Amino acid sequence: MFKRKKSKEPKIKKPRFQAFRDAYKVTRSVKPWIGTALIATFVIVLAIGVSLGFVFNRPIYGGFVTVPLAALATMFFFTRVAGSAAYANIEGQMGAGASVLMAIRKGWTTTPAVAVNRQQDMVHRSVGRAGIVLTGEGGFAVRQMLQDEKRKAERFAPGVPIIEIFVGDGEGQVPLRKLQKRLKKLPKKLSAHQMREVRARLKAVGGMSMPIPKGPMPKGIKIR
């Protein structure tokens, strides 16, 4: 007897424009002029291409070639504006730093809110090839919280480099929009095996449950 193969149910794919739609909604809530600016960018680039086509007596060919260039220029402009709008949308919210850190999917694992006080100051712990990064959000009390978490990390993962980062716009602090870049630029000190071992050791320490700002997170704002 031959067994019948079970028919696999077709997977429902999400629309490709969903990421663009979500990013556009967030951007428009922060920058209401984005729709007009996108149309203007497309029209200006297209007009330049058509004008050059008239110069060479080939206006139709100039317009045909310029359409994809105009679309590309419009999308490039949108990604730049959407990136700053996404940060502005979550800036000042509880857990904004954790949301940005957790958006780094390659090479880093972040445990949000390993320490939180009544003033909603908090510390997040990230583990990567650079070692352990403790990121503090809040006021003056977060410095002591960072020191406490540093001692805890040293106890569970002795000898592993520990970097402390303060999120903010003051002196010696890292702005929210530059937080991802800061982590990615840190020199690699651990091998892949050592990094996995550190993650396993710190997994038992855990963190605390906390709300994370909703909405698309800036991760290069890549839109297909």
UniProtKB/TrEMBL annotation:
Pfam entry (one): DUF4191
InterPro entries documented for this protein: DUF4191
Transmembrane region(s): 33-54, 60-78
Entry keyword set: Membrane, Transmembrane, Transmembrane helix
Name recorded for this polypeptide: Unannotated protein
Source organism of the structure: freshwater metagenome
